[in-house]
Amino acid sequence: MLTTVELLQRINEIDTSSSGYFGSFKVNFNHIEFLNKISLHTMFKIVDSNDGKITIIQDSGVESADYSKTSGFFDFHADGLQYENDTPSLVLFYCKNQGVQINHTAFFDTKHFETLIENDIDLLSKLSVVFVDRMGRERENSLLQNHKWTGDICLTLGDRAFLKPRNNLDKSKIPSLREISRISEKIFKTINDVTCHVHKWKNNDLIIFDNQKYLHSRVGMGIDKKRELIRICLDKC
Which of 150, 159, 197, 216 is most deeply packed, by most CB within 10 A? Predict the structure, then answer.
């Protein structure tokens, strides 16, 4: 099992000249030590969320617009859409309490979108994915974005979100509702046709992944108030 300092060493070895990083570890994780040392020991910095430097993902037991406080199904998405085209490069999940093992996390490698992007890039480039945050505010992001490290084209999604034409489009180029519906179906057919990696959390599991290249979802099968994950978002300094 890694120590927090050893984890920091592993993070500092991430090759940012390529995209698609995905690391899975067992860690005796001290989040206070991690927060204090991340910028001193690595090339990365913390990206604050709506909750601050860390987010506790645990069911509150009451209905909530904050998906981190619920256990139910949460469809594929990238974290940080509230930053509008500036999603964090890396996301870290740490399992503090595995709970009763009825809710897992699925990861979708967006390399499976490559053919879709190649065939439909003109339409995809005209669309935004609009994320609706917990306060009901709409946050518009380009559906296709360039990877921060490599410039690769990435397709991003949100759960509580919808597709719309980009605001700066010439009116003569706005896609029709039928076109938007068609591409939405193709996106989710691509996801449904792929066998995604489903991680069944155990205590001390830690996963850190490229937030632009991997979408993730919660496969929820019931309320689990004991399950507790810590989420931390990172970007290059």
Answer: 216
Tokens 């005209």 correspond to 126
Q: Read off the pLDDT of residues 121-152 as tens digits, 9 standing for 90 and up.
A: 999 999 999 999 999 999 999 999 999 999 99
Q: What is the largest CA-CA distance in the chain?
A: 58
What pTM was computed for the model?
0.95
Q: Are strands 228-236 and 2-3 parallel, antiparallel or unpaired?
A: unpaired
Compute the distance between CA of residue 191 and CA of residue 209 in angstroms, rounded to an integer.
18
> Whole-angstrom Cα distance, residue 107 to residue 20?
12
Q: How far apart are CA 182 and CA 178, in angstroms?
A: 6
What is the Cα–Cα distance from 224 to 70, expressed in whole angstroms?
A: 9
**Token output for 108:** 């979708």
Whole-angstrom CA distances from 180 to 120, 188, 190 are 11, 13, 16
Strand order in the sheet with 161-165: 138-142, 127-132, 161-165
Q: Are 205 and 24 in contact (CB under 8 A)?
A: yes
d(CA 213, CA 109): 6
Token pair of 109 as six digits: 């490698």
